[in-house]
Amino acid sequence: MIKNINFVSKFKKANIFSLIIFILSLIFISFKGLNYGIDFKGGTLIELRTDTSINASAIRDSLKSMNLGDINVKKFGKEGDYLIKVEQKNTNNSNLIPEIKKTLADNLNADVDFRRVENVGPKVSSELLESSIIAISLALAAMLFYIWIRFEWQFSIGSIIALFHDVIITLGIFSVLSLEINLSIIAAVLTIVGYSMNDTVVIYDRIRENLLKYTKISISDVSNLSINETLSRTIITSITTLLALVSIYILGGEILRGFSFAMILGVIIGTYSSMFVASPILKFFKVSYKTLEKEEEKILP
Amino acid sequence: MLNFSKINIILIYLIFFLISIFSVLNFQHKDNLILDKKVNLGLDLQGGSYLLLEINSDSLVEEKIQSKVIPIKKLFRENNLIYSDFKINKKDLTFKINDFEKFELFFFSRKENLINPYIDNYRAFELDYKKLNDNYVQVSFSKFGLLTINNSALKQSIEIVRRRIDDVGTKEPTILQRGEKRILVELPGLKDPERIKKLLGKTAKLNFRMVSENSEFGVDELISEIGESLKISKRIVMSGENLIDAQPSIQNQQNEPTVSFTLDRIGSQKFGRTTTDNVGKRLAIVLDGKIISAPNINEPITSGKGVISGNFSFQEATDLALLLRSGALPTPLDVVEERTVGPDLGEDSIKSGITSLIVGFILVIFFMLYKYRLFGLVANIALIANLLMLVGVLTILEATLTLPGIAGIILTVGMAVDANVLIFERIKEELKTEKSIIHAFDSGYSKAKITVLDANITTLIAAVILFAFGSGPVKGFAITLGIGILTTLFTAYFLARHLTSIIVLRKNNTTLKI
């Protein structure tokens, strides 16, 4: 493995790059918005399999007479597989699903197999959104707390900024590409939080160790040394995790595609951020061996 | 770190063996169970329906607040309180009162308070009041009063939902309370939940009431099954509570599907008396405020048995009988969330999940072999052991495996090797400075220990939070991810370390490379 790359010299460029992408992501999230699925917006989702001769517009046309408002029909994996999404309307029609099924079966002149039907009411969807936001916030807070106990507050802030960076940019990319945010994406985001933290902790651990070992050299050099020393581990673990994820992405079926895509993004961004975001922040806070000295006993068992 | 006592070695392999042996239970033949434990498949993998029902207690609250009107008025009269402008609203009562302090005294009396009982478990009164201007008072249910109403309605509803679903005969339904107002229903293997939804959507309140032009109780004007407008007395002759059985039947003359019912003793008496007194008049059978039919009473019915006809199809007659047998729901139930997966999609999901697991596994194994050769083999043995233990623990817990859960296993495969990578990389570094190979391995393991622990605890925190907040399939992901971390720590730090120690101690200081 190549060693002794001068990471510190690239910190500045990387940080400017990160900042731009971060702000762009925020802009996209707040202005273009996130494409919430029915889990968070409420509505009805139907996955069906029919003849390969039938296209999306035929399905859309056959539902027009029902006046369902905003209908989204798209291909879903194989030829002849479609996903239909109907937005929540105020009317609480308990017969909506059988009516849609009947209309489709009547109008399409083909066998229709309804493979999956989901319907989320407005109350439940807003609760799901709320609990997802709580879960992510709680995860971030728990990480902050854990690092604060195990390291110093400077490390804690550094890792949290890196986490925010990862989560916001992942969501930003989802916004740019108009990819759907559903419950499994939230699961992916939380896993990214765990993974990115994992990466950051490994580098921080080494920085702490080296700070105490080489008290004479600056935090920049210690960071550089530590990143280099852990570099091959960082790369190997990213590769094995990505191998598993790419396997899910390609072979795991349509339902897991969004989830695995978010995870792939997250692993790449998380690996980058633990080297180029989390470490420079220690320099910003002027961390030195003196910062650690007070608690030396606690750290070295 | 490389020295293991005999007891340690025995313990490590015993724990590994005892846990991973459980994973084998999943491959048992159905008819020949050694131990009935296996990983359950989630609805997204085996197909089925998930319904979240919510009780709608508005009508119940309205009913209950109305029932307070007469006792309150009576109390006022008996105690010379003068009230005026008494209004009955949907959720509250408002009126003007002359002596507010006296009212308050009676309202919050703890002794024999029939109007506003004190609920001991909550240490609160059932009703609460708000003073409006000009001596106006607004009386409504307190927070705990509402809670009590919801609670008992929910308990009753769960019982009746269970009866109705059992009656339909789906396999292994799960019916659980969720929160204060919701019931979760899982119906594995059910492809189309519409019939169940229909059956659960009806409260099925059955009343027998006389058709009469003017009744001292007042009349409701309802449309009958054949379209005529009938005036029906508000007095309920008999209600569905007195039914002990109802079955679909065929009436011989017209071959028409009907529902035959049997009444309990009290019901038989009431029904007998009414039909004796009213021969020649019409009796309306009202279900959920709609007339099913309004037949003529031809002769007194004293046997306690009767037949309801109403132009039913056989399915309708069967369903009505089922509803009457199971009893009325206290409130209507709304379906607030529904997820149905067809069995073939479930099968496809299992197939693609397993395929991606195998491929991901093979990719990681080859990569580790390429990277670390002999020690890659150690890491791979640890990985296989890890998977066996993970499935073993899932089996012991009889956890539910979902599609995201399979993704969690694959992710574990990718991330589990991290522990060994951390250790091996550390040993590599140690080998650069340390002359003795054994020492290098030893300090590699001990120095990497804290890092491995720190790194895994962060992911574990994420998994625990996901488990606490996630629902359904996502919970399945959190379970496999979380357990995966624990088995990873075990296999890396005990199994793989022992295997490494065997290699290192045997090769003894020659040309060991990592």
Rounded mean pLDDT score of chain B: 89
**Largest interface in this structure:** A-B, 68 and 69 residues
Low-pLDDT runs of chain B: none
The N- and C-terminal alpha carbons of chain A lie at a distance of 31 Å
Q: Provide the spatial order of strands within the biggest beta sheet of chain B.
A: 9-10-2-20
Report on the architecture of this protein.
The complex is a heterodimer of chains A (301) and B (514). Chain A is an alpha+beta fold and 301 residues long. Helices cover 68% and strands 10% of the residues of chain A. In chain A, the strands form two sheets. Chain A has a four-stranded antiparallel beta sheet with strand order 3-4-2-5. The longest helix of chain A is centred in the last third of the chain and has 33 residues, at 219-251. The two termini of chain A are 31 Å apart. In chain A, 47% of the residues are buried. Chain B has three domains: 6-46 and 342-507, Multidrug efflux transporter AcrB transmembrane domain (Multidrug efflux transporter AcrB transmembrane fold); 59-146; 204-310, Gyrase A, domain 2 (2-Layer Sandwich), CATH 3.30.1360. Chain B contains 13 helices and 21 strands. In chain B, strands 9-10-2-20 form a four-stranded antiparallel beta sheet. In chain B, strands 3-4-8-7 form a four-stranded antiparallel beta sheet. A four-stranded antiparallel beta sheet of chain B has the order 14-11-17-18. In chain B, a hairpin with a 5-residue loop joins strand 12 and strand 13 (229-233). In chain B, helix 10 crosses helix 11, helix 11 (403-433) packs parallel to helix 13 (473-507) and helix 12 packs antiparallel against helix 13. At the A-B interface, strand 5, helix 5, helix 7, helix 8 and helix 9 of A face helix 7, strand 20, helix 10, helix 11 and helix 12 of B.
Entry summary:
Chain A is α+β, with helices and mostly antiparallel strands and 301 residues long. In chain A, 68% of the residues lie in helices and 10% in strands. The mean pLDDT of chain A is 90.
